[in-house]
User: Which sequence fits this backbone?
C-alpha cells in the first residue's frame, strides 16, 4: 500500500492503532483530530502498536505519518477515510456533514462499535459513501475487520486496503447492532455471567475452561465448523439430525442473568482473584505477547 | 506418572484418546471394553493421537498398554478408572454396579458429556466414588478437563493424574448439564445460528469473524478477563458501571433461533461452502495441525 493515503479521523486508542497499522504497512497516513491534546498524545499511543507490528512482521514501519488539525488537508487525496469519532450519533453525523462538504468521492469507513450502519448513514447526502468497518480490540493485533455498506465497489476498495494491512475483512449481508463478533462475545459472556451468578463455577474457573477448551479451538476453527466436525462422517447434516433436538434443549436451559449488585460483586471479586495482583498494563502486556505468539503460529500452520 | 495404573473403560474415540494420552505420559494403561470389536479397533484409533503427542512433546510414548475383556483384571491395582461408556444413564449405572462390586476404593471418573454428576451418582452405594471428568474434543490436544465430585480428596487425586498427563483440570462448584465449556459453546452457537437465520451473515462469514476476532482472543484470555481489560484503568468494576446497562440491552437483543428445516438447510449449505470440497478427515487434519501449533506457541509465550 506504498503511496496510498489514508485519513484517520479521531485519534484515541482505536485511531492510534489504525494509524500505527497503516504506517507500518507503508501508507501515507494523515491523522486528524479537532482536539490539540489528542493530536499531541498520538505518538505515545502509537508507540506500543508500532513496536509490536515490527515484532510480528520483522520489518520496520515503511509509511509516513502527518498529524493535522485541518480536516481538508487530511482528506485531500485520501483513498480511504477511517473515522474513529466517539460513539455518538450526532457527533459522528456532524463530522460526516463536514466531510461530504469536502468530498463525496472518498469512502468514509466508520470504526463504529455499538452503533451500526443504519444508525449513521441516513444523514448523508449519499448514504452509500459510508461503510462500517469495525476492528476488534486490540486492532493492530486482532485481524478481524467487520464491514457493511450498500455499495459493493466501495466495500471492495476498502477491504483491499485492509487486506494490504494484514487484516481479515468479513462482510455482513445486513447491518446489526454489535455486528457479528460482539454479538457472539455478548452471547458467550451472558452464559459466563450466569455460571458465576448460579454458583456453578467461579470467574477464574470459567475463564480457564474457555481458554483451555472452546477458546483454544475457536482460534483455529469457527463454531459452525466445530459442529460440522462434531457430526462425524455425516458432518453438519448428521449433527443436526442426531443432536439438533438436544442442542435446542440446551439452548432452553441457558441462563438470562441480570447484573444485580450481587452479581457485579461476584464478577469484580472473581476477576481480582484471577488477576492475582497484576495491574491492567501487566495483563495487557501478557495478552499481547500471547496474541503475537498465536498469530505467528497460525501463520505458519494454517487454520480452518 | 510412571508406574501409575489407569483403567480406561469404553474404547471408542474418547476412550482411545485417553488411552493414548496416558500411555504417552508413562502410565500403565489397562483398556477394557465388553465388545471384542471395540478392543480390536483400539490400536487404529490410538495411532493418530499417539503420533500427535510425540510431535507435541518431542518424546516417544513411555507407558504401556494392555487390552482386556476382563473387567476385574483391568481394575486391579488401578489408581483411577476413566469411564467412557455411551451417554446412557442405565448403561453407565449398570457398569458402575459391576465396578463397585470389585472396588469401592478406586475413583470412577466419568467422561460424561451430556449427562452430569447428578444424573449418574445416586445409584452408587457411595456416590462420592464417582466424579465427572469431561474432556474437550479432541481430548489429547485440547487441555481442558472439567471436574465435579463431592469428595475433595478424590478430586485432588484425579486432578493430579490429569495434570501429570498435561491436562488443565477446571473444577465446577455445582454440577450443571453441559458443565462449563459446552454451555459456553452452546450459548455462542445459538447466536451464530441466529445470525445465519436472520441473514445478517453467512456461515463462512460468522466462522471467519470468530476465528479472526474473539476466538483468537479467547485462546489467550477468558471472557471475564476480556471485559476487565475492556474497562480501561478501572477494569471490570468500571466496565460494569459504564457499559453494564448497554450489555444488558445487547443481551435482550440476542436471538433465540429454532433449527427449522430452512435454518438447517442454510447451515448445511453454508458449511459446504466453507469446507469447499475438503472432507472431514482433511478438515480434522488441518484443525489438529493448527491446534498443535497454537498449543506450542502458548507454551512458549504464556497466556492469561
Assistant:
Amino acid at each position: 500500500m506504498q503511496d496510498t493515503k489514508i485519513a484517520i479521523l479521531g485519534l484515541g486508542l482505536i485511531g492510534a492503532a489504525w494509524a500505527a497499522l497503516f504506517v507500518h504497512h507503508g501508507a501515507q497516513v494523515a491523522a486528524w483530530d479537532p482536539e490539540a491534546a489528542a493530536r499531541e498524545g498520538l505518538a505515545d499511543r502509537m508507540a506500543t502498536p508500532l513496536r509490536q507490528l515490527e515484532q510480528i512482521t520483522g520489518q520496520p514501519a515503511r509509511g509516513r505519518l502527518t498529524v493535522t488539525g485541518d480536516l481538508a488537508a487530511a482528506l485531500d487525496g485520501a483513498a480511504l477515510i477511517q473515522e474513529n469519532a466517539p460513539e455518538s450519533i450526532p457527533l459522528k453525523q456532524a463530522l460526516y456533514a463536514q466531510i461530504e462538504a469536502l468530498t463525496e468521492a472518498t469512502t468514509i469507513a466508520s470504526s463504529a462499535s455499538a452503533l451500526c450502519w443504519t444508525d449513521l448513514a441516513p444523514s448523508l447526502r449519499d448514504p452509500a459513501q459510508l461503510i462500517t468497518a469495525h476492528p476488534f480490540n486490540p486492532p493492530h493485533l486482532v485481524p478481524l475487520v467487520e464491514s457493511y455498506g450498500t455499495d459493493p465497489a466501495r466495500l471492495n476498495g476498502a477491504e483491499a486496503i485492509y487486506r494490504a494491512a494484514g487484516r481479515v475483512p468479513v462482510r455482513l449481508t445486513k447491518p446489526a447492532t454489535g455486528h457479528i463478533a460482539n454479538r457472539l462475545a455478548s452471547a458467550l459472556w451472558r452464559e459466563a455471567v450466569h455460571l458465576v451468578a448460579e454458583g456453578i463455577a467461579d470467574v477464574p474457573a470459567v475463564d480457564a475452561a474457555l481458554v483451555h477448551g472452546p477458546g483454544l479451538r475457536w482460534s483455529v476453527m469457527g463454531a459452525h465448523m466445530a459442529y460440522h466436525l462434531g457430526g462425524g462422517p455425516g458432518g453438519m447434516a448428521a449433527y443436526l439430525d442426531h443432536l439438533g433436538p438436544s442442542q435446542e434443549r440446551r439452548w432452553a436451559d441457558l441462563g438470562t442473568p441480570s447484573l444485580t449488585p450481587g452479581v457485579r460483586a461476584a464478577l469484580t471479586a472473581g476477576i481480582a482473584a484471577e488477576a492475582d495482583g497484576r495491574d491492567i498494563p501487566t495483563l495487557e502486556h501478557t495478552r499481547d505477547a500471547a496474541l503475537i505468539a498465536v498469530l505467528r503460529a497460525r501463520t505458519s500452520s494454517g487454520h480452518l
In short: The beta strands of chain A are 5-9, 28-32, 64-68, 80-83, 108-110, 130-135, 144-148, 168-171. The mean pLDDT of chain A is 96. Chain A touches chain B through 109 residues (CB under 8 Å).
